[in-house]
Amino acid sequence: MTDWYGEAGRYPDLMFDPLYEAISRYVGAPRESILLGSGSGEILKVSTEVFASRSHAVVVGGPTFETPDRRAKTLEYQVTTVPVDAKLRLDLDAMAAACAGAGLVFLCNPNNPTGTVHGAADMKTAIATMLRAAPQVTILVDEAYHEYVDDPSYASLVPLALEEPRVVVSRTFSKAFGMAGLRLGYAVGQPQTLERMKPHLVSNNVNQLVGKAAATALAMPGYVEKERKRNAEVRTWATSFFTKAGYTVTPSAANFLMVDVRRDAKAFRETCRARGVEVGRPFPPLITQSRISIGTMEEMQQASEVFREVLG
Fold first, then answer.
1. Alpha helices in 171-294 (DSSP H)
2. What's the half-sphere exposure (Cβ side, CA atoms, 13 Å) at 195?
3. Which CATH number is 223-311 given?
4. Is the peptide bond before 165 cis (omega within 30 degrees of 0)?
């Protein structure tokens, strides 16, 4: 990025070709099937605007990542929230049953904030049911945590999005690539589907420096695998810490844990913050569950001392 500072005074056209080429190689999709966003948040926002409407609702899990829900409510679109199941997984059958007449179904897999993941076969079966039940519906699959998954039943649905015009997959550089503050995400889908989204995007929504950083990161062999292994090791350690302390931890396929701290999650967050440790925001209706991000081993060991003190 510092080597690229000299281009920061120019519009980012120069950067687009190598960035698209790098993403294309990474996901196995042609350039025309990729759409850049300012983080995947812009992709989720635009998908809600384009595929849902006041007459075609948005179907989401409860809880899940909030952008589609919040954008729909701002636009006064109807939102159907389907509670997660007893294992805190998206209830795919119930979401399929609720999608008649819907314009958009949002499937975050792995799900944020619960960290739970569905295998590829279950996802494909549910999506096929949704597409049959609602001829007008589009399925948005959020794979923000794709790089962290080690469940052998899981697979990306990018190939399905390349085949099916009513399926879009969103990805981000905010998680495994460590660029949350730089803002870069992308959608993968059929060109005619992405063309519907383009007019709603901000022009030049990806700046020179983040584009250069992303293209460079994608060219680093072994980086993602190294990060996945590091995260898995620290996630296992943190899971063991809470389990040994007597707290229930939902099995996670992401870079965070959902821990039942058996007290108000908002109060727990505020108490931890006062001691210099930040944990995730509350996710109703799971009011006693705290989402705790996975940092480095050193960070988690330091944070565990605060958790031990706060939890008593």
1. 191-197, 208-218, 223-244, 265-274
2. 5
3. 3.90.1150.10
4. no
